[in-house]
Description:
Shape: elongated
Strand order of the largest sheet: 3-2-4-1-5-6-7-8
Bound molecules: guanosine-5'-diphosphate, magnesium ion
Order of helices and strands: HHHHHEHEHEHEHEHEHEEH
Number of strands: 8
Largest sheet: 8 strands, mixed
Number of helices: 12
Strand content: 5-15%
Amino acid sequence: xxxxxxxxxxxxxxxxxLSNTLGGVFSGFSQIDEDFYEELEECLILADLGVDxxxxxxxxxxxxxxxxxxKETEQAKEALKGILVEMLEVGSPELKLDTNPSVVLVIxxxxxxxxxxxxxxxxxxxxxxxxxxxxxxxxxRAAAADQLQVWAGRSGADIVRQHEGADPxxxxxxxxxxxxxxxxxVILVDTAGRLHNKQNLMNxxxxxxxxxxxxxxxxxxxxxxxxxxxxxxxxxxQAKQFKEIAGVTAIALTKLDGTAKxxxxxxxxxxxxxxxxxxxxxxxxxxxxxxxxxxxxxALL
Length: 301
Ligand SMILES: Nc1nc2c(ncn2[C@@H]2O[C@H](COP(=O)(O)OP(=O)(O)O)[C@@H](O)[C@H]2O)c(=O)[nH]1
Ligand SMILES: [Mg+2]
């Protein structure tokens, strides 16, 4: 299956929901009038674009329809696609991995898919010929490092881990030394998502960041926030909190195969102005798609 087909398949639930509702709007109205706009806005909110983003998208559409004197709803559909693509393109869609090593710190609450996403990214990078090192910074349970180890084996990446309960920043320190010694190209750092409060989490992530800054001052760095696409607008609230405390530079939205609310991707990109760089559409190694805004919108509509 090619990329586009795979995105399409992964978004089946969202697409089915949208083609029932949105499809109905575009085919059900013979002209672009007030009712059409209202119905369209409602559909976009239902698909989890969120009220703010849905209202903004429809406002922009009104403007384009007026300026370009569009008459047919089919033309409005094409214009809407353009608007959504623009909303999604808020930065480079690729991870910045300019230095050897580069560091990607992966954060997010428990269960969203951090470890799985790291495994998938490692698989892709190894396939591209990069030497990848995984750092087991989630030291809460031994099982977390075990899970990462399985992904290391599967993908062909190296792993650095310590005992359960170890200081994550110290595991990161070890990982960086190993990466330097082994001339790794990319360091992917797994973290725990179950720190009891915001302050705690902030301290932990700051400590890790300071180690990276000190040991690899010139390295390319990304802070990749993983969000569970099935949590809808709650995910957006979570993302806003993480943005505040952790300087998020990129987003991965997982589990889009399991939701009819794929519109959350647009809400997240628009509300946070942080680029979505990956979408997860399944549990297997190749179920992570690089994010191409145009393909995503085509697959959605
Ligand atoms: N269907 C589906 N499941 C996913 C996806 N990404 C992760 N998962 C599953 O979500 C669960 C939690 O993932 P995990 O990586 O352990 O989350 P973490 O706690 O953030 O590290 C696991 O059962 C994964 O297989 C995805 O894109 N689609
Ligand atoms: Mg994990």
